[in-house]
Here is the input.
Amino acid sequence: MVDSTEPSHWLELSVDSQKFIKEVLWVVLKKEEIAAVRKVVCELVGELAATIMNIKYAEGEQTQCPPEAMNWDGLMEHVSGLLACDSLELVTCGLKIMSILFTFCMNDYSKHKSDLTPMFKQTLEHSDFKVKTAAVDAFTSYLKTAGSNDCKPFVGFIPLVISNTLEIIDKDEELV
Here is the structure.
């Protein structure tokens, strides 16, 4: 979905359909009780957001579509809401979405290091195993796609990431 070399079918949808899809994904994500389905919805949200951002930056396509097709107003407010939620399942969803966004849209997020620092700290130090696992995934996604200067502020988290990774390996190899 996020391959910017292929034309996006997203642009073939009406603006009303695009808006509806974006709204419904948040509703489904928050109401879905089955973890495997929530994971797929998170992946869809992350990949759709990355697709939209890639359309925004692609040469040529930008002039061919309305601004609404190239933006997801409220995306980060929704993700931040998930990360601040009391539901640990939704916190992990927010981290999964961030992991995907870091992978495909790093240029949009590397400039927000000061906002990411408390998120990484809080989630990497969390007592819940699944939150820590999702935090390691998001953190390593950031590290592997950000430039070295954008990684420097997070060097202090490396021992915690290593410790969490060892715990993940010890408890459940399939989560790594």
Observations:
- The chain is about 65% helix and 0% strand.
- The chain has a mean pLDDT of 86.
- The first helix runs from residue 15 to 31.
- The chain has one domain: 9-175.
